[in-house]
Amino acid sequence: xxxxxIINNQPVAFDKEKSLLEVITNAGIDLHTLCYNKQLAPFGxxxxxxxxxxxxxxxxxxxxxxxxxxxxxxxxxxxNRIRKMALELVLGNHPSECQTCDKSGHCRLQDAANAYxxxxxxxxxxxxxxxxxxxxxxxxxxxxxxxLCGNCVRVCEEIQGVKxxxxxxxxxxxxxxxxxxxxxxxxxxxNCGQCLAVCPTGAITPLDQTWKVKEAIADENKxxxxxxxxxxxxxxxxxxxxxxxxxxxxxxxxxxKMMGVDYVFDTNWSADLTIxxxxxxxxxxxxxxxxxxxxxxxxxxxIKYCEEFYPEFLNNLSTCKSxxxxxxxxxxxxxxxxLNLDLGDKxxxxxxxxxCTAKKYEASRKQLVTKDGEPETDVVLTSQEIIKLFREYGxxxxxxxxxxxDNPLSQHTGGGVIFGVSGGVAxxxxxxxxxxxxxxxxxxxxxxxxxxxxxxxxxxVKVAIVNGMDNAGKLLDAIKSGEKEYTIIxxxxxRGGCIGGGGQPVPNEMAQRELRKDTIYxxxxxxxxxxxxxxxxxxxxxxRHLGEPNSHAAHEILHTSYEPRDKVxxxxxxx
Amino acid sequence: MADFKINIVADLESLKDKVSAARAAxxxxxxxxxxxxxxxxxxxxxxxxxxxxxxKHGVATKSDLFxxxxxxxxxxxxxxxxxxxxxxxxxxxxxxxxxxxxxxxMKVTVDDVDEIVEKTIMNGEVIERxxxxxxxxxxxxxxxxIPFYQLQTFxxxxxxxxxxxxxxxxxxxxxxxxxxxxxxxxxxxxVIKTMTDSGLKGRGGGGFPTGVKWNFxxxxxxxxxxxxxxxxxxxxxxxxxxxxxxxxxxSILEGMRIAGFAIGADEGWIYVRAEYPHAVKxxxxxxxxxxxxxxxxxxxxxxxMKFDIHIKEGAGAFVCGEETALLASIExxxxxxxxxxxxxxxxxxxxxxTIINNVETFANVPKIMLLGADVFxxxxxxxxxxxxxxxxxxxxVNSGLIEVPMGTKMSDIVYKIGGGVLNNAKLxxxxxxxxxxxxxxxxxxxxxxxxxxxxxxxAIVGSGGLVVMSETACMVDVAKYFMTFTQSxxxxxxxxxxEGTKRMLEILTKICDGRGEDGDIETxxxxxxxxxxxxxxALGKTAPNPVLSTLxxxxxxxxxxxxxxxxxxxxxxxxxxxxxxxxxxxxxxxCARKCPVGAISGELKKPFVIDSEKxxxxxxxxxxxxxxxxxx
Amino acid sequence: MxxxxxxxxxxxxxxxxxxxxxxxxxxxxxxxxxxQAVQSRFNYLPKELLLEVSKQxxxxxxxxxxxxxFYAFFSLDPKGKNMIKVCNGTACHVRNNxxxxxxxxxxxxxxxxxxxxxxxxxxxxxxxxxxACGLAPAVVVNGKVYGHVTPDKITALINELRDKExx
Lengths: 575, 632, 167
What we know:
By secondary structure, chain A is of the alpha/beta class. Chain A has 19 helices and 17 strands. Chain C folds into 2 domains: about 60 residues; about 80 residues, Glutaredoxin.
């Protein structure tokens, strides 16, 4: 449908927009909606997008299809009155905590109240419910701040296909909850944090563990080691207006060193390591024709999803840990040796900075512990948290000097960098397998499913690259029914890949993810080496400790196992 | 078991004639009302007792409609609601299928049955004390003479109290399914034209032209469509749909089938609120019978048309009366309304084109198809053709269900049919349209009961609930009562309704509790406007109506509560101050002993005193005092 | 009436839910009739049953919980053996049902804010209009409708029930 709509007396052309609200937004007018999200079905709950037509009829722009000849006004006194009252009513239920709220500055409710000048709240606020769900490893859900927009429920259902949360109760007793009001950690929640990405207020935030890091840095008995993921760098370029990812990382390293961090390593290095292990594993299976298709295993939300809903495919998962997992495990076992450090009573405190809230959950998995039973990764900070820390320390990242990351775990290739985007892992595997660092265009792009047919030494290899958890579920159903067949499948639970992870700064819509994707591929372009096989620092550890990929020594620290979970409660049976 | 499957229209007409003949041959037909109201008054026990008594007296009754071997051809049966619910259990005794010559007994108890059998059934004598008597002592032998019934015009409720609802043959006997036969003889487009010409508007409250709605859906090209009947009559005080579902279920099935033909649907759903188990049973039985007779299933009446109907019970949510919430409920989800567009006619149940109509709307359809649009238009006024059922309750002498042409004056309903205000009290207001409606004050009570006129006075016809209020009703309390209802039934999806009704209720409660402040009325009005304009569905949009209408006509009552700290109607307990009149008090201490909080003290045989600080205003003392010594 | 004995018998629960799924289907629109059957059998919705329904129908537990907490007819807490539902329709409100509710709560010994007595013998609830407006105020006691109820009448009715329980 295309045509012209008169908006506030000005003609505005429209073409492919699905809703009147999209047309209004594209015309440059922000209605400060709370429950609208482009990738979700329109809901119509917040009432902020109400507009008035020439006949005095009111309609919600998000649910109205644009039609040629429409004549609407977005800010009549009547409409403004409705919006102001809606905001006053919402604020009447909302804690007045902007100063200390993690969402302050990025909160749509705050923006809207500010924009419409809601300066008085005539209604008595209820007593705060002290019960906040901070019992899980990844997210905090605070229903006191919830405006019942339903975005979290809808993304969990429509995009992620998990449906761990839903509306419960009725009327003004409504709330968002897991069944029986259990914490997220006792449900099928996969910790992906996409709910966080679409939450307009501070009702869902990453579990803030910055205090643990500050404590560890101040502790003389701790050797604080950081690893930094590629997608976080894309977030930093966005947040601070830095030219490119490598520069952002260099400045971040300066910041971390100033904070007192002992070592800063690169998750890109371990991404290369992951390719050495996983590609070898994959080619081994191809040669034997067994346990195919192989599914990648670096996405912890995907792992939990598989354990819950598709345990029949657990045997197909790669047994490789994720880059985070591999680096942490390697550091805890071999770092002191590699650097000739006499730790004495000191313990290594491993911190990883990730775009992903599920990585916090991954660090808590019972399989990912050292021989002494300690977690391999002690703390995972999300992009949001590292930015929070930088702010507390007063760092304006763009103005800091640049410092290189530490050896021996920071050399990386472009193949490691591109792990952050959908198609990146597959492309890195292809580069390794074909021993060719060239760009594989067919792997690139944020579309939900990509299929590529390759020929590996005469053996047909069908590649599938899927992002978005529900899309992965549909693909698995197609495989089960026999409709589709693949040799290797890269699964990333977040649309667009890890660059869209739940821990990334908001707004975290597809528009932002597209830009972050470009930053990642730009970093690949800037990288000196492209093929993970060429990473000398990865080669070195095999020579020093591991022998060869998939060796016993490699399996000991770089591989893991999985266990089926109850599909209704998400729990392991012996938990 | 069905005598024969009705495969072609001729079979239908032949069965009709057979039933008519069987009924005409009945020397006496005894019909006990087993509608909801009469059941609550004990009709179940009366039914069994009367059966026993007939047997005891050797009066043989037919075992089946076509049972011809019974001496004297007496039929003892039951019907759905006969209308005068206040005076139930109701018993009709008609000779030779002529209800004009019949006797109507009221408030029949198990102790009356022997006398009824001996005197009336065996000897044709009338028992005076069981007849209806009006306020002047005049008694009425036949129901048709009672003003309550005289002024009514029965269309949808015509068969309700006159046939056994659990015997499809009786429905066919009075012309049932001939409307469907007419429809099937023509085309879907013609059916829709007839419906549109009739001017029938949705009787559930929406008032949308039925033919127009069907036309939207008929235009959709889709292999699967649905017909849905909204039986979620949730307005407190309304029970018309219950009576029709329970007393004339086949008329709804027939109406739905005609609709299915018109729009091209082969499946229907009836959504019945869970609080109506009798209606669910009646409908279930009706569907079974219709299937047995080949009126549901494949090849209905030889038309080649398929249609089947399922029942879905509600689970206690008023909002499921809203059509998109109703669809969500059938789909197994929370009853949260969806934004419109898309309208159900385009995308409804399971995403398919669907029409949803109210019970009474469907009950009108067979008659329109049988007698034509022009006959239907003989009743009513322009813009509101046909008849409407109403329930009249509250402070009214004759409480019950009625059906009158649209355009009847409300005052006629209250005084002529309803018998006036209870205890000869003065009429204060009539609440029309339930929680979505408004209070019409006494000085506007001559308003014509049609969609436009009622809207003009700030109320809505709605589903047809009329609650009569005398001077003892506090209008602020009435607004609070409806807002309490709406708040508890709000689904919670949209901000305006969820939060807006909550805050409106807070203010109303404050005012009734004696804590009203300057500015409260203004805030209430502001909220009312915003909720009315900004809510997602009709529940929210109309929730402020009781407040807005009581503010319009009874603003002074609100002001009295706030500024004078008085409740003019004497209802709100916060303003009551119980005190003992010393001259009348005998010092018997009965009140002090009953007082739950020990607020009354005194010496025996001397006047007692109430401590107003402790008093919780429960009123037990005043109710206990035999000497009228306690006032408030 | 309720039979709570099966709740610690997983096989029994599995078989029972199986029979419900067989009767009503396993689609999403089968959910409410299934829950109604469970509510009717147990007088509430036991958690064990809901877990099994989710397992057998693949309807997510969060959705089942959302539906169970939306509709007034469903209860996640066990109700009393005797159900007293006081109609709160307009006519009954106008004809003053408040003292009836208060009397019922008192004689059933139901604590403040609760709807069920501690001995689980009685539940007293305000319910939406029953459609018996001609006989306001109306009360439903164990499924039977009583009209023109007064506080004394309801007290007597409840005491009668209590005597039966104790007998």
